[in-house]
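3.2 Worked example (two chains)
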Amino acid sequence: MSPLADRYGRRFPYLRLSVIPACNFRCTYCLPHGYHADAKAAAPLSLPEITRLLRGFTELGMHKLRITGGEPSVRHDLTEILRTAAAVPGITKLAMTTNGTLLSKRLHEWMDAGLNAINVSVDSLDRAAFARITGHDRLEDILHGVDMALEADLASVKLNAVLMRDVNDRELPTWLDYLRDRHIGVRFIELMQTGDNLAFFRDHHVRAETLEAELLDAGWQLLPRAADAGPAREYRHAEYAGRIGIIAPYSKDFCAGCNRLRVTATGDLRLCLFGEFGIPLRPLLQSDDQLEELVRAVGGQIGRKEQGHFLHEGRTGITPHLASTGG
């Protein structure tokens, strides 16, 4: 096994695979007008293509896989994708990020297929604010699904909330009440500029360090970063069962700990969420005989990964919105 490593010494055991670009939400920071399919776009990778892709990445040392979208539950064969991924030798953690609209209905089906970690996007615990942000009044049902996941002893249950000034940036007390007795993590994610949200970004961007300072003042303590962890700086407090993670892409040295690669729903390798190019892998996913060629192709591209993103310069690469690459 040859672990993927770049010229800066970073290793990449973690793959985020988008299985569909479509989403059934209309989040203000991502798809405010809803998802509109491109009639000329290629279909998402088929199940056999996904299987070959995952085999290639595990040959290179990938062991943590996160299924993303768009919204992955929009895809009718999601359960089969999870079952197939769980059966690939070498994958030890199978996670998914979802808006949770089908969580209460499909949780146990997904767990039976092999899912052992889930992140649910919940940008506000206020019902009206949640509906304004997402375009859907579904908070109660989604939180019911989250409670089901906690009761089912899923190995990892986390919530994601995108921080937005004058939208949801004053809700920390409500979140603390929620975390007091729940063994759950919430990640506050700094709003990021993408190709088509510049005006929204300028109106609502707030630095995540502001919230981080509030936590430190309230006695929360920073935890050591796990080897296969994502980009969150995680905090704990003795009086709370839950934990808080801060994802601050505009902070200094944010990319130094990067440990993931991305593949879009149509099979393009993205070395960075905000990269300037994609590398088409789909031609190498048409036959089991192409495994060695796929491994060489992926391994040969890692040297092109930049040391960091260029968000500070307003360069968002080829990412029009987060749904296009799974965030």
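3.2.1 Second chain
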Amino acid sequence: MNRVRRTVPIILGMLILTGFTGFQFALSIQTANAESPQRIVGYFSYWESASLESIKYSKVTDIIYFHIWPNPDGTLDTSVVNQNDLAIIRDSAHSSGVNVLIAAGGGGASEGFPIMVANSTARANFVSNIVQYVLDNNLDGIDINWETEINQEKIDGQDILLSDLSNALKPLGKSVTVATSGEIVELKSTASDYVDWVNVMAYDMNWGNAEHSTFEDSILALEMYHNEGISKEKLLLGIPFYGRDSNTNALKYNEIVSICNPSPSDNNCNDYFFNGIDLVQQKTKYVLDNGYGGVMIWNTGQDVHDQDSLLSAINVILGRQ
């Protein structure tokens, strides 16, 4: 399609955003103010190695490298980690004052969690191995991505694991974080005592429905965890840098820009529903106005790096230029 792209305005005064539902709202961006305390946490997956040099460290507070995972006996599978990439990210991030964590688990790589956690010896082994991995690689913490069926056994086990990791890592000045479902609460309120923050995966919701990450669903996801007793400042809203269609196929945001050249108000590219600039800023503004801890991105390697950048759009709202 032929369309003149609209840039994201970085000005004082009034910015009118149009959300995907069609309604408009006004917000004031006072760029002269100090930046907000909200975190901007970006996952970077090992398969995005080609975009390594394009990481904008000044636009995030934390990077989570994806991923390692547990074996049932508590040993670590690190087979997909690109050690050179991890070292480059760590050194570049640290020189910019940005923290780097390692993700453990993820979709299709979490089967070892239930068996490991249920066995006290294996669990202790896992915790010890995580501590050593974090120290050996000079990382700033661990992000648990236990993505299996959510039931009470998992909720109880995850609580025990997060407590054990907290007891082992916090005295070393390291962080413990967790990624959770945006549709079903899988944390006990005690998690607020163990974790530094919670990455609420408010995407891939309504499975089989292309609109997998709407504004309304995202807000409900945050409120759901807060109502369970997780403090607002520890809840980060997950924002997708990709789209899905009704067959659950995915399209990266940089591919969407290349194919459809969307305007800021667009959230649909050839029946792939995505979060465009306006919707991303609407979500970020809600996080800011309501005292939540920040936003999380899956994943930074899928962004573009010009006026259409979603990461830059987030930074505008949070006063980080």
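3.3 Remarks
Residues 83 and 137 are 9 Å apart (CA to CA).
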